[in-house]
């Protein structure tokens, strides 16, 4: 290992508040494992209190991109590439703007933005709001663009696409496959854009690799806890955890 990489790894391990990040990814992994969503909505509000915005986002992109890789071949077979392509096209247009926003916003503004967007999206999820029209190409591109912008700026790429697809008449395997592929695309492209803009450094990448281990263990535990007959209970528990994470980490309570 080169001296510079060794120094970066030491800095990652010495991150102030690392215990909070480990707690956040375990909690996010548990919720993701038993509810199927919620990683960014739990991790980002907490990470925003410990890390600079770009670091918080980059670390999450790393550990969240590694998790679904074994499922990519099946997702590619089960999904609908044409619909995915429209969402990806929208995401490609919006992601650079989102990455630019996170590179210039202040840490305090970042925390307020993540908390407010998280709470707003949570309200929509809890209310049961869904879109009931057809999944037209412009609509898919618009959902991808909104997801790409939110993913690049706050890490919250999933909810716009999830809410759109969960209201569709698509088979569940198609829904899960296209959502998985879109989120993976968002993570990888956002990381590439950060590198191209000179925002990606070794420390947050190594931090993401460190956090991947407890995140993976949380996912495994959450999946083991899941019981299909109690899905409604798990979802409401996830909603409460997300709300507590967003509210407790507002700058207002510093």
Overview of this structure, please?
The chain has 254 residues and is mainly alpha-helical. The chain has one domain (3-253). Helix content is 78%, strand content 0%. It has twelve helices and no strands. It has helices at residues 3-13, 18-35, 39-47, 53-66, 72-78, 81-104, 107-127, 137-154, 158-166, 172-196, 202-225, 231-248. Helix 2 packs across helix 11, helix 6 (81-104) runs parallel beside helix 10 and helix 8 crosses helix 10. It is globular, with a radius of gyration of 17 Å. It starts with a helix and ends in a 6-residue tail after the last helix.
List keywords for this structure.
mainly alpha; 12 helices; 78% helix
Strand content: under 5%
- Please summarize the sheet with the most strands: none
Number of domains: 1
How many helical elements? 12
How many beta-strand runs?
Answer: 0
Low-confidence stretches: none
Structural class: mainly alpha
User: Which overall shape is indicated by the principal axes computed on the Cα atoms?
Assistant: globular
Assembly type of the shown chains? single chain
**How much is the radius of gyration in Å?**
17 Å
